[in-house]
Amino acid sequence: MDTDRFSRLVSLACHDLRTPLATVYGFARTLSRGEGVDDRSARFLGMIEEASEQMTGMIDEIGIAARIVGKRWEPALREVDTLELVATDDERVEVHGHGESIETEVAVVSRGLRAFAIAALRYGRAERVTWRVDGRVLELSPLTAAAAPVVIGEDVRDLGALVARLAIDELGGSVALDGETLRVRL
Fold first, then answer.
1. What is the rounded CA–CA span in Å between residue 171 and residue 156?
2. I need a surface site. Which of 80, 82, 101, 111 has the fewest CB within 10 A?
3. DSSP string for residues in 111-159
4. Residue 118: partners with Cβ closer than 8 Å, 6 or more residues away
5. What angle do CA 27, 29, 33 make, to 5 degrees?
6. How do beta strands 93-99 and 129-135 pair?
7. What is the pTM for the complete model shown?
8. What are the start-end ranges of the E strands in the chain?
């Protein structure tokens, strides 16, 4: 099977998975908001809702990757400050520096940058990471020896980081390692 046909198959699968997943999510939400739900059942329904939301995000990521590989991705470009792209409410991720206004696919790039930081934390077993922003150059550190291959995409273990790399490259940016720092140019 050629790459184009495979990417179309993956896109179709992502599309078709959305309907049953939306059904599971919808029923869990409906039941959790109903009367007479005990605490234990409410907790389980909340877990189903959260897992459904996570799966929806993964399906979106796979769909974007398939469109990029199949040369069918049409990013919705809009203006944003680079500092805003790395802004997060995750207390383990610090952000410093000054941004620059650029035109990019905001949702995908922002999600991707967040995925880089989370992968650095998870696979590097770090307690904190820092984004340093200097215009179009964003640097994430520390990136441990254990986390670096995952974050950069050499070790295929993190879907978000892999899709981030694909999207940033496709948008004309770059992702590279410099010692214990991940350097992203947008």
1. 21
2. 101
3. HHHHHHHHHHHHHHT-S-EEEEEEETEEEEE---TTTHHHHHTSS---H
4. 90, 160
5. 115
6. parallel
7. 0.88
8. 78-81, 93-99, 101-104, 129-135, 137-141, 174-178, 181-185
Give, for 41, the enclosing helix (H) or strand (E): helix 39-69
What the block records as the tokens of 133 is 């922003």
Among 91, 75, 72, 94, which Cα is nearest to 83's?
Answer: 94
Express each pLDDT in 123-153 by its tens digit.
999 899 999 999 999 999 999 999 999 999 9
Q: Does residue 105 sit in helix, strand or coil?
A: coil
Candidates 68, 104, 111; CA nearest to 88 is 111
Number of Cβ atoms within 10 Å of the Cβ of 79: 9
And the tokens for 129? Answer: 């990471």
Written as six digits, the tokens of 8 are: 């179309």
Q: Quick check: 38 and 82 in contact, CB under 8 A?
A: no
Give pLDDT tens digits for 49-76: 999 999 999 999 999 999 999 999 999 9
Question: For residue 96, how many other CB atoms are within 10 A of its CB?
Answer: 12
